Amino acid sequence: MDAGLWRLVLFTVEVAAASTALVLVPGVLVAWALSRRGWPGRSLVEAAVTVPLVVPPTAVGLALLLLLGPAGPVGGWLRRTLGWEIAFTPAAVVLACAVVSFPLLVRQARAALEEVDPGLLGVARTLGRGPFATFVEVHAPLAWRGILAGAVLAFARALGEFGATVLVAGNIPGRTQTLATAIFQRVQVGREREALLLAGVSAAIAFATLLAVERLTRGRERELAR
Amino acid sequence: MSATPASGEALSFDLRLAAGAFELRAAAAVEGPAAVLGPSGAGKTTLLHAIAGLRRAEGTLTLGGAVLQDTGRGIYLPPERRRLGLVPQAGLLFPHLSVRRNLLFGRRRGGGRPELPEPAGDDFAALVEALELAPLLDRYPRGLSGGEARRVALGRALLSRPRLLLLDEPTEGLDAERSRRALAHVARAAAVAATPFLVVTHELDEALALAREVVLLEEGRVVAAGPAGEVLTRRGLPRGPHAGRHANVARGVVARHDPESGVTAVELERGGTVLVPHDAALAAGAPVVLAVDAEEVIVSVAEPAGLSARNVVAAAVDALEEEAGSIYVRAGGWVARLTPAAARELGLAPGRRVWMAVKSHSWRVVLG
Fold it and tell me: If you average pLDDT over every residue of chain B, what do you get?
């Protein structure tokens, strides 16, 4: 493996890991909120969370670009107050991956949280725990496999992210280029053998990741069957 | 170790809750140890969860003068602020924590810092002993039997130092022998922790064993409430586990064993001694609760002689009550069920001196 390819793989994995770390806590908290019934606006939040999953990633990327671009409301403000540039930087790649993988984590974590016996949560309440302490000490620990599986899924999704990334971060070799965007670029310039190699590497990483999810899920089934 | 039940602050509730076609409208005031007795589907568990604050009910709930809820005035304490210890039917131990950590979970009541990070303190040791939990401490809930899990759940609730323990069908699914042991554990542990309790059950003997006061619940309504001996022999009660079971209840302590004669003597709280079949499992000096159904009591108008029944008391008839084709004779705090013909032939009337006799084998040891 040459140094350029190695750097590309490392950058892609780093971006996916950063994106996963970014969505983990908010994603689990949103999943928890969605698993609790009876608060106004719940279905609205649920729809909003799912949107990035069903609209074209390029549409998500366009929205992000409008928000984060130097003239956008968020990007413009960050530039004026902190001097930060977001669009077309590695940070934009991370953000694009985060937005697109967020719904996957939320859905998986929520399903795992809803599997926990509500009776256990009630007992924790009678033992002096408020709703949040119950979540931290009982609910989340009992759903950890599902939450982890959700995180791995979000990671895998981030590894393959293309549409949103290319719009808000571009495809700048050595700066914002990931495996997914690099394949596209190599094909465009006719370096198809290289593209094929990158595709193989991507597939290997994705396969290993999904294998990990599969193992975790199977472990959970065994646990429930006992 | 004394197993005298802790008596506590009065619990008074007037709660309303609708769940689909079922409606709970229950009001009563009791002092623990108390039982809510009723058939399956009467709403016992729903009532318990409403008291615990796990199912929102409208109405008022006070415990020893503290208002836990008064929805009319906008007061509703969440479960974590009610200080009520719930022991669910299934135990519901936290599967990710060892038995020890399950037991200590409630110690950090209020979400504060751990008061006692390591097992320490007298009540932990005393409860582990009373509930025979020592060999289980480092195990996980998955491997425990149903009875073991319930004991841990009981200890966990008591270690949170609740003002009132709420027990949901503590012997459900256990066979007779295990039920008796489970009840003994409940009585002993509650005494060790000096915590009064409210138990819901559909087993008459369980209510008799544990509770001094009883609330009868039918289809979401309280049909009677008060001291167990009085409520369970009251006339005109609707169907239920108590129907036709006008039980005499007697509390006492084991006075002595006489294996030669095959009897164990129990000294009653109300005075007098009762002989029950020899039972080596009853420790001398230990508290017991005995019950005998009204139809098992023999009434005689002359002092019995040459009778095999070993337990005879003389008393004057207090009252004769007719219910569902039977005559209930009350005398000296006991109640006997006779056919109208038998009552007529004996010429029973209030004030008449009678002897009431019970065979040793008719007594049920409901707790001991």
Answer: 85
Helix, strand and coil in chain B, % to nearest 5? 25, 35, 40
Supply the DSSP string of chain A, one letter for each residue: --HHHHHHHHHHHHHHHHHHHHHHHHHHHHHHHHHS---TTHHHHHHHHHHHHHS-HHHHHHHHHHHHSTTSHHHHHHHHHT----TTSHHHHHHHHHHHHHHHHHHHHHHHHHHS-HHHHHHHHHTT--HHHHIIIIIHHHTHHHHHHHHHHHHHHHHT--HHHHHHT---TTTT--HHHHHHHHHHTT-HHHHHHHHHHHHHHHHHHHHHHHHHHHHHHHHHH-
- 8 Å CB contact between B228 and B238: no
Q: What would the pLDDT profile of B196-217 be if each residue is shown by its tens digit?
A: 999 999 888 888 888 889 898 9
Q: Which CATH number fits domain B249-367: 2.40.30.20, 3.30.70.60, 3.10.180.10, 2.40.50.100?
A: 2.40.50.100
**Mean pLDDT calculated for residue range A51-78:** 92
Task: Encode pLDDT of A165-214 as tens digits.
Answer: 999 999 999 899 999 999 999 999 999 999 999 999 999 998 888 887 78
Strands of the sheet with B75-76, listed across from one edge: B75-76, B66-70, B58-63, B10-19, B22-31, B221-227, B213-218, B34-37, B197-201, B164-168, B84-87
> Would the pLDDT of A131 be above 90?
yes
State whether A126 and B79 contact (CB < 8 Å).
yes
Give B159→chain A minimum CA distance, Å. Answer: 9
Does domain B10-243 sit in CATH 3.40.50.300? yes
Burial of B129 (0-12, 13-18, 19+ CB in 10 A): middle
CB A126 to CB B86 under 8 A?
Answer: yes
Element holding B155 (H helix, E strand): helix B146-159
CATH of domain A3-225: 1.10.3720.10
Chain B contacts of A126, Cβ < 8 Å?
A: 52-54, 79-80, 82, 84-86, 157, 160, 162
Which residue spans of chain B are classified as CATH 2.40.50.100?
A: 249-367
Picking from B52, B92, B108, the nearest residue to A128 by CB comes out as: B108
Q: Do A138 and B82 touch (CB under 8 A)?
A: no
Q: pLDDT tens for chain B, 368 residues: list them.
A: 334 445 557 899 999 999 888 899 999 998 878 999 888 888 999 999 999 999 999 999 999 889 999 999 999 999 999 999 999 988 899 999 999 999 999 875 444 444 444 444 568 888 999 899 999 999 999 989 988 999 999 999 999 989 999 999 998 888 888 888 888 899 888 888 888 999 999 888 888 888 889 898 988 999 888 887 777 766 555 544 555 556 788 888 999 898 888 889 999 988 888 899 888 888 888 888 888 888 889 999 888 887 777 788 889 999 888 877 888 888 888 888 889 999 899 999 999 999 999 988 888 888 77
Interface of A with B (CB under 8 A): 117, 119-120, 122-130, 133, 137-138, 141-142, 226
